[in-house]
């Protein structure tokens, strides 16, 4: 299993534009796994399996973006939500061995809605709507990494590109704060600016960017980080083992990942392993 190091929230906070974490988030950040982890692909088809993890994700978003950064955003039952949190949203969730969500990012097709194009088009030089001429246009938003683990950051950066490649994406839009942009560039994302740095209503400065989605970018990031492991998993809700706990399912995927060379091979191996354990009555 891949070893993980615990990272100090204080020493990593600046890289993730988190200057302090309120008591609730600080308490949640205390538990950080030291073993293998997986990035869970949570889409509309399997979202019902992640109710608790999504609730935690929205609470974390409220802590960071509303309470820490002071952004004026919509809060429902203590969680932060925006117009991108709809049926087309896909969440990449970093879960530990207990099922706790310690990291997340949202990706979504931008053909019908985009935070950048529809809500903040002035950050784009020229006609922001013209970006939709690319049929493979997606957008990412609301990146959180509780505890600032470097390995978890690598997994999100690589996993996002590899997942979007499977969806036929060509580029992914974002509107990061300049501090987050600086971190993303330092750690390997080769972002293309779409406009000059401009202030946003909450008091910071952001830059509209586009991340190329292609095989070369995925290979570049894996070479840069030395990561050759498979860490993206997606649960088929129709699988006979989908009713099992996320901790049992992730453990099987993590075990299968030791021999898998890609996500499809991983899925097949984990499926066979879980079916076998069900037949033997080892899991229920």
Automatic annotation (TrEMBL):
One of its GO terms (biological process) is quorum sensing. It comes from the Bacteria. Keywords: Autoinducer synthesis, Quorum sensing, S-adenosyl-L-methionine, Transferase. One of its GO terms (molecular function) is transferase activity. InterPro entries: Acyl_CoA_acyltransferase, Autoind_synthase. Belongs to the autoinducer synthase family. This is Acyl-homoserine-lactone synthase.
């Amino acid at each position: 299993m891949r070893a993980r190091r615990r990272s100090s929230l204080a020493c990593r906070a600046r890289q993730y534009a988190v200057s302090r974490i309120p008591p609730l988030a600080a308490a949640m950040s205390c538990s950080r796994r030291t073993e293998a982890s997986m990035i869970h692909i949570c889409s509309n088809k399997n979202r019902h399996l992640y109710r608790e993890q999504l609730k935690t994700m929205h609470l974390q978003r409220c802590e960071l973006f509303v309470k820490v950064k002071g952004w004026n955003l919509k809060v429902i039952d203590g969680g932060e939500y925006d117009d991108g949190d709809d049926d087309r949203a896909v969440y990449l969730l970093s879960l530990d061995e207990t099922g706790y969500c310690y990291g997340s990012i949202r990706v979504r097709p931008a053909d019908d809605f985009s935070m950048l194009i529809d809500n903040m088009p002035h950050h784009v030089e020229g006609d922001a709507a013209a970006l939709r001429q690319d049929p493979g246009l997606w957008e990412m938003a609301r990146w959180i990494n509780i505890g600032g683990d470097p390995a978890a950051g690598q997994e999100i950066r690589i996993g996002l590109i590899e997942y979007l490649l499977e969806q036929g994406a060509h580029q992914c839009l974002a509107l990061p704060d300049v501090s987050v942009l600086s971190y993303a560039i330092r750690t390997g994302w080769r972002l293309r600016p779409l406009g000059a740095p401009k202030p946003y209503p909450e008091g910071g400065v952001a830059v509209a960017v586009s991340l190329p989605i292609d095989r070369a970018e995925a290979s570049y990031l894996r070479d840069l980080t030395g990561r050759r492991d498979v860490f993206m998993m997606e649960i088929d809700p129709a699988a006979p083992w989908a009713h099992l706990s996320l901790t049992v399912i992730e453990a099987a995927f993590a075990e299968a990942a030791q021999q898998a060379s890609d996500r499809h091979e991983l899925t097949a191996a984990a499926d066979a392993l879980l079916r076998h354990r069900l037949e033997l009555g080892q899991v229920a």
